[in-house]
Amino acid sequence: MLKSVVLFSVVTIAAASYSDSLARNKLVKLAGASFTDNVQHCLNQFIPNSELIQQVTLPCDFFQKDTCSGYIAVSHSDKSIVMAFRGTTGYTQLISEGGMTAFTKKINFAAGGKVAEYFFNGFDVLWQGGLKDSFLKAKNANPGYNVWVTGHSLGAAFATIGATTIVHLGYAPANRMKLYTFGQPRVGDSDFAAAHDKLGFESYRVTHHQDIVPHVPPQLFEGYHHHQSEVWYNNDMTIGEPYIECDADESKKCSDSNLIDLSMNDHTHYFNHSVSGFANDGCVITFKKYVVDEKLEAEVNAVWKQKFAELEKASVKN
Q1: What's the Cα-to-Cα distance from 14 to each of 7, 239, 313, rounded to whole Å?
Q2: Share of the chain above pLDDT 70, in %
Q3: Which CDD domains does this entry report, sorted A to Z (predicted)?
Q4: Structural domain tally of the chain?
Q5: CA-based nearest residue to 82, from 35, 60, 50
Q6: How high does pLDDT run on average in the chain?
């Protein structure tokens, strides 16, 4: 089926390599599967001939009572190795409360630029805790397979660092890497974004309508900057809805066009369904129904409107 796509606001038939079908039917579900402790059961519901290699769940540094999790799997039917991540409940709370302390410290990244230490440490504890060895095992056992990396929210930040690490270190060639993230925050600075873009692999940040998290940390805070490319659904993401593809690091033609009415509900729901709810419901074909928490929406908007105003005021002074 042909999709209605907008490239820099010009309507055309899908000429880019972004795939709504792949994002909707496979990758967002693979991201959602990271929220369960029974990943193989989840994979069996929508990926035929799949095998879980390893799931790693470990405490994260910033939220000491929380855990982060990721897994390596193989989809033989898609001839692809999967690496998927989830974040923490503490991160969602941090965003809801307008917290910025997790983003104040950045560290050097091997491929170039700097990334949030908070994001890097969360990824690295999982990577060194078993995902690296499991990825290399899966790759060596399945030469020629593509690599799919995905995640939602904080897991999207881990996925970006993971895909960039894999290609930079030569563990997989750029032409076999696909990175699709959902509700991704800004991960590092403009030098990191440039280093990521230079590697040349297929990379898409999928953003749902007024999702607040892609605007965090704000661009005016500590030099944070998105990498290419963004795919923005300025709608509820129902099947057949159009999307805008912005092949730039930051673009006012995509989600950066709105910093006023932002939403946590749009963050937790992609393709009109709850991402974490998919796992909680046993990874059945139909996700949980969309539920709007109007009180939470109002509270989060009030917090971040004030944050953006403060940062704008400070930037003018400087």
Answers
A1: 9, 15, 40
A2: 87
A3: Lipase_3
A4: 1
A5: 50
A6: 87
**Long-range CB contacts (< 8 A, 24+ apart) of 172-176?**
172/139, 172/147, 174/199, 174/200, 174/201, 175/201, 176/145, 176/146, 176/147
The model's pLDDT over 183-218, given as tens digits with 9 standing for 90+, comes to: 999 999 999 999 999 999 999 999 999 999 999 988
Range of the domain at 47: 4-317
For residue 101, the 8-state DSSP code is G
Alpha-carbon Rg for the chain, nearest whole angstrom, is: 18
Q: What is the pLDDT of residues 9-54, one digit of tens each?
A: 333 333 448 999 999 999 999 999 999 999 999 999 999 999 999 9
pTM value is: 0.90
- CA dihedral of 220, 222, 223, 224, whole degrees rounded to 10: -90
Q: What is the reported pLDDT for 96?
A: 67
Q: Is 74 helix (H, G, I), strand (E, B) or coil?
A: strand
CATH number of the domain bearing residue 85: 3.40.50.1820
Q: Are the beta carbons of 166 and 280 closer than 8 angstroms? A: no
With a cut of 80, say whether residue 263 has pLDDT above it.
yes
User: Per residue, what are the HEC states of 247-277?
Assistant: CCCCCCCCHHHCCCCCECHHHHEECCEEHHH
Ordered alpha helix ranges (H), the chain: 20-22, 28-33, 39-46, 89-96, 117-126, 132-141, 154-168, 190-198, 265-268, 275-280, 294-317
Q: Which residue has the tokens 């991160």?
A: 91
Is residue 24 a contact partner of residue 270, using CB atoms and an 8 Å limit? no
Contact predicate 212/237, CB 8 Å? no
Residue 4, pLDDT above cutoff 50: no
CB-facing half-sphere around the CA of 130: CA atoms within 13 A: 12
Is 72:131 a contact under the CB 8 Å cutoff? Answer: yes
- List the catalytic residues: 153, 211, 267
